[in-house]
């Protein structure tokens, strides 16, 4: 192994660093994709048989459009929605398949490009003629959702102009330029359950739908409900609901928490205490001295400010340290704000420089809604405004892929090899005959190793040297009882410079790695698998592959995007079973 191929380690001792002991980034917005999947599945079940559009505009309310869109689709979202065409196009370019719609345009919108990318277009009026010419130019019909203004007073066609817009659309549909797939509108105060606004808007929507029938149009999707309406107004469900806020585990209702709704907040905003100091009574704190300590006070400095998206007016915003919640005092600055720890005299002694500080997250952490209350805004804005200076870390990502043949399995593994770096681990599970050896052989091929891969069952670990790159260490942990035994066979020595594949390593091998992929192979044909037969690895029957990335290297947006692209390429590449 050359020096150029070895990567810096978190410790100079050479020992494997347990995940828990690794240094955390200075600040991060941790996105729990399992929470996203849970929330989408919960909302989709609530509105069924109506379908679910998950709204990922504004980078998925700050959570990351692509990871959220993928998680939403995995959890049963039928359509992904954005405001801008550019947002939808970026998702397509990142490999997102499936139905995708965007609805807020300016005259320079790239309609032809959007149509070529099979993006559906929301139309409120002037856009229709532009979409028709774009469709004519590219030679296939545009899928259009016509928007009517039922009382929000923003976008959408006013009712008096609606019949004319429908007539133009019907003519274009007859001419084969467009297909009207949707009719939609947006509600102004669906979270106000006692106000007449929503019933009025629904009545106007019914009237608008009457004109749609008269025009001879037959859309697949009639949709008007956002999260609050999807939850609280059953009569607003129609064929499809558009959920944004609920996807992210936040409540649109003043009197209901996410837990009341069965939702889990997906974003945790965290940093570490940057300074702690004792100051005299009457010390002025932060710009403008809007706060003076009233006892001899201990102050903690939180290194996030309005440049990170913390609202400057959010004086008294909550921060949890070791489970105790302190409130911000004084002005929020660009990069930092201050807590007065003497708000909790007993707990304050436990706070040290470097301790984790959680601004908001799922309970028991303070909520994004508490920050919204402190800032005089809504929870939507709190999560959406967290700036790019705060890196997102994705937890509980999960990719699923059907591998149709043994050849498809090894081709995917070979492609995956190009994505791996020395030090990465793969914890590979699957019953005997599920294709673990085929997979590992593909990985070896992708790394440039020519040796035949055989099961390491009887030797525990095989080291495959590689003249051109990292060696492949192939381990069978089946007969090992705990992680210590992996250290006993000296794996911690080779891990930093190798790609290490551990079969049967779940709940044992995690400690060896800083970052690893947990990969599961599942034979779709169940039944009479002879569990002592090693020979049926090559049988060409489909396998389900599940990848779960762990550790800092695989938790970045870039890593998630790269994995998504590998999986998307393999999904389209393997459709034709090889003879
Ligand atoms: C943002 C948006 C939504 C999502 O609203 P939530 O209240 O976040 O569920 C739905 N429809 C349209 C047109 C939107 O712009």
Automatic annotation (TrEMBL):
Pathway: Amino-acid biosynthesis; D-alanine biosynthesis; D-alanine from L-alanine: step 1/1. Its EC number is 5.1.1.1. Signal peptide: none annotated. The gene is alr. Residues 1-24 are annotated as: Disordered. It comes from Micrococcoides hystricis. Gene3D superfamilies: Alanine racemase, Lyase, Ornithine Decarboxylase, Chain A, domain 1, P-loop containing nucleotide triphosphate hydrolases. Coiled coil: none annotated. Its cofactor is pyridoxal 5'-phosphate. This is Alanine racemase.
């Amino acid at each position: 192994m050359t020096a150029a191929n070895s990567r810096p380690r978190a410790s100079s001792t050479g020992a494997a660093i347990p995940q828990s002991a690794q240094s955390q980034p200075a600040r991060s917005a941790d996105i729990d994709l399992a929470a996203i999947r849970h929330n989408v599945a919960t909302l989709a079940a609530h509105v069924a048989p109506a379908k679910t559009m998950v709204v990922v505009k504004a980078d998925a309310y700050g959570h990351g459009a692509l990871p959220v869109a993928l998680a939403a689709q995995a959890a049963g979202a039928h359509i992904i929605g954005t405001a801008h065409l550019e947002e939808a196009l970026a998702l397509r370019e990142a490999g997102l398949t499936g139905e995708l719609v965007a609805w807020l345009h300016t005259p320079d919108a790239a309609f032809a490009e959007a149509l070529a990318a099979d993006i559906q277009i929301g139309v409120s009026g002037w856009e229709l003629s532009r979409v028709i010419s774009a469709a004519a130019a590219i030679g296939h019909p545009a899928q259009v959702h016509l928007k009517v203004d039922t009382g929000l007073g923003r976008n959408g066609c006013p009712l008096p102009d609606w019949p004319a817009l429908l007539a133009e659309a019907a003519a274009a549909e007859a001419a084969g330029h467009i297909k009207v797939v949707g009719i939609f509108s947006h509600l102004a105060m669906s979270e106000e359950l006692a106000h007449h606004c929503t019933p009025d808007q629904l009545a106007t929507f019914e009237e608008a739908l009457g004109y749609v029938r008269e025009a001879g149009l037959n859309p697949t999707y009639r949709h008007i409900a956002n999260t609050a309406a999807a939850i609280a107004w059953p009569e607003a469900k129609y064929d499809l609901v558009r959920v944004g806020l609920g996807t992210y585990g936040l409540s649109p209702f003043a009197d209901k928490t996410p837990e009341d709704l069965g939702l889990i907040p997906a974003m945790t905003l965290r940093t570490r205490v940057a300074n702690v100091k004792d100051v005299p009574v009457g010390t002025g704190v932060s710009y403008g001295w809007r706060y003076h300590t009233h006892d001899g006070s201990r102050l903690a400095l939180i290194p996030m400010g309005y440049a990170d998206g913390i609202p400057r007016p959010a004086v008294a915003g909550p921060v949890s340290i070791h489970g105790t919640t302190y409130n911000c005092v004084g002005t929020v600055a660009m990069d930092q704000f201050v807590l007065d720890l003497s708000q909790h005299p007993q707990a304050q002694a436990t706070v040290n420089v470097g301790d984790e500080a959680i601004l908001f997250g799922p309970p028991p952490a303070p909520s994004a809604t508490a920050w919204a209350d402190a800032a005089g805004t809504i929870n939507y804005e709190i999560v959406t405004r967290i700036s790019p200076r705060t890196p997102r870390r994705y937890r509980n990502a999960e990719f699923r892929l059907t591998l149709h043949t043994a050849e498809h399995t090894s081709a995917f593994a070979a492609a995956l090899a190009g994505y791996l770096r020395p030090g990465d681990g793969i914890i590979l599970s699957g019953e005997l005959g599920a294709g673990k050896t085929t997979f590992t052989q593909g990985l070896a091929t992708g790394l440039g190793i020519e040796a035949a891969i055989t099961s390491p069952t009887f030797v525990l670990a095989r080291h495959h040297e590689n003249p051109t790159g990292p060696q492949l260490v192939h381990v069978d942990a089946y007969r090992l009882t705990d992680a210590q035994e992996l250290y006993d066979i000296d794996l911690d020595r080779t891990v930093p410079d190798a790609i290490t594949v551990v079969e049967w390593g779940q709940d044992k091998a995690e400690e060896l790695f800083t970052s690893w992929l947990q990969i599961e192979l599942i034979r779709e044909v169940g039944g009479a698998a002879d569990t002592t037969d090693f020979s049926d690895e090559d049988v060409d029957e489909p396998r389900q592959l599940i990848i779960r990335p762990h550790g800092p290297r695989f938790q970045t947006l870039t890593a998630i995007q790269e994995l998504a692209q590998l999986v998307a390429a393999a999904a389209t590449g393997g459709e034709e079973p090889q003879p």
